[in-house]
Structure formats: C-alpha cells, structure tokens
Amino acid sequence: MTGPLLRAQSAHFAEIDALLPAAIEPPAGEVLTAALPDGDRVAGMLTRTTLAPGSPQTLWSTAEVWELHPLVGAHGGVGMRALLDLWPAVIARAAPGRDSACVVNWPSRDIDATAAFLSHGFVPLAVLAVRTDASSPVATRADVRVRRAVGADLDSLVGLAMAEVEYSSRVGGAIVRAGAATIKRDTLRRHLAQGDPVWIAEREGVAVGHVEGWHTTSAAGTWAETRVRHGRWGYVNCLSVTPSARGTGIGRTLMDVAHRTLLDRGAAGAFLYYNPPNPVSPVFWARQGYRPLWTVWEVRPARALR
Questions:
Q1: What one-character DSSP code corresponds to residue 52?
Q2: Which tens digits make up the pLDDT trace of 195-220?
Q3: What is the tens place of the pLDDT at every residue in 159-199?
Q4: 110 vs 40, 114, 175, 277, 305, CA distance in Å?
Q5: Contact (CB, 8 A) for 231 and 259
Q6: Beta-bridge mates of residue 248
Q7: 143-155: b or e for each residue (b if 16 or more CB lie within 10 Å)?
Q8: What are the structural domain ranges in the chain?
Q9: What DSSP state is assigned to residue 133?
Q10: 230: buried, middle or exposed (CB in 10 Å: 19+, 13-18, 0-12)?
Q11: CATH class (in words) of the domain with range 2-125+298-304
C-alpha cells in the first residue's frame, strides 16, 4: 500500500505547491489504516517521542509528542478525516499527561485538509515559511549597527533570546521552562563556537536585537528533505528585538544583513518557522518575502484531541 500512496501523495503535493518536496517513507511507528467510502484505503504512521529534560527542543515543544505521518495519497480532506477519526482511541488508551501534544505537519495550501484538522481540535501553532527571492536589501536603519556576534556578546544574546521565548510563549508554541536561560546560553555558545552566523544589532552602543541562521542541505536521508526540495538552503533560527525597540525597523535591518549571507549564490532559498497566532510575525515575514509552505497543526494536551 505504501508505494502507491507515496506516489499519489507526491503527485498531489506537486499539484498544490511547486515548492513542496516529494513525499517520503514515514518513520517506524504504530500503523493506522482506514477504509474510505469509495473502497480505497489510506494509512498513517503514528510516532511517540519523549524529549529529555533540559534539551533545546523543550523550549518550543511539549515533553511528549504524538505525531501522525499521514499517507492519504490524493484523497486530501476525506483521507485525513478518516485517519484523524482513529487517533483519539489510541490517545485514550495511552492516557498521556498535560505536557503532551498531538502533532501533524501538513502542506499549508492543502485547504481540503484544514476542516478535518479544525474539527478534531487542532490549531495552527506554527508555519514553515520559504523565500526564494535572492534580491538585494532595500531598507536599513542608518543609526543601527549590525555586526557578527562574538563570545563577549553572550550575555546580551541570551537576554535577547529569552525575550523572544517569553513573547512566543504567549502567541505560539514556546514554553518558558525552568532553566530556559541556561539552555539558550549553551545553545548560543555552541553556535558561536561552530562559526554559525549570529548577528547582533546595536543602537547607541546598546544591543537591541539579534538573528541566528545557517545553511543546511536538503538531501536524501536528511531532516530537511521532509520539508524543502533538495538543495542548499538558508535557515533562520531566531530573530529577536527588545520589547522597547520593536516596530522601529530593527528586525528588518537585521534580516537585510542576514539575507546577504543566507541567500548567497547557490542557495535555493531560505526558510524559517513563525507562529500564525502572533499578530506581528505573519505580516513581518510576508514583507520579507516569505510565504507558508507547511503548517504545524497541534492539540495540547494530547488528550484534548477529539
């Protein structure tokens, strides 16, 4: 069953969005299958992941994640609804705790599946957005200095990163956990040591924003292969501006500088995640040339799935 469904799903993806990668074999897990009214069948693989306390992922994810990897071929919303109808019984047997979620990553433009997600209690907590335009920067603030961050900037970077986590926790999937600042410090220290580009913005000598990013290659067997077409891509990991400086053009100035590196020659484009419930992010990133490719649908806690 997997082969025909994969081929049909890849064709469906290509039809709804030319930037989507081909569907690939899902990871091992619990198999769900459902019969459709026309006699066809759809399938999905259900995986359960438990994150280690103190790991970076716990700042944007629940500790226990149940993820469905659908194989609905060309059946769209009908196939998705049939799979989702089976899921609550699995969750009821497992009885997960409050720090848990049911998650599905699905193409943003597959609107036929949207009603199925909403009817089962899912909300669009995150979007993976892409930009393929490599045009030159057009607007910067002359009174803001943007430079590559160094080890001596670590304290400032941690403060900026925590400002982003705290804001995102109110408008998206981020979670302010005990030890969050330590997790951010260790992560930023590692990026600086590896030479990953981290930029910091200063106004009158005071740090007012930062952005992190790097290049990643989508190839067979890589995590990026499930999200973007094969090639070399820029990835924006975090953009943060201090609360008092938001809305003044500093974020745009930072991204103008970052894009010069991330969208260099040979890059297929750049991608990032943002939170649709955030009243600022969708508009900001659209003006930066990004548009939704994948939507991350979630139910928190997992037992709220209906």
A1: P
A2: 999 999 999 999 999 999 999 999 99
A3: 999 999 999 999 999 999 999 999 999 999 999 999 999 99
A4: 20, 7, 28, 19, 21
A5: no
A6: none
A7: ebebeebeeebbe
A8: 2-125+298-304, 144-288
A9: -
A10: middle
A11: alpha beta
Torsion of CA 1, 305, 108, 112, to 10 degrees: 70
CA 168/CA 245 separation, integer angstroms: 17
Cα 290 from Cα 227, distance rounded (Å)? 15
Query: Where would I find the H helices in the chain?
Result: 2-16, 76-94, 114-119, 154-171, 180-194, 250-262, 281-287
- Tell me the C-alpha distance between 84 and 259, whole Å: 39
pTM beyond cutoff 0.85:
yes
Return all residues near 298 (Cβ < 8 A) that are at least 6 apart. Answer: 101, 102, 103, 122, 123, 125, 126, 173
Domains 2-125+298-304 and 144-288 share a fold: yes
Query: What CATH number has the domain spanning 144-288?
Result: 3.40.630.30
24-64 pLDDT per residue, tens: 999 999 999 999 999 899 999 999 999 999 999 999 999 99
Burial class of 92 by CB neighbour count within 10 A (0 to 12, 13 to 18, 19+)? exposed
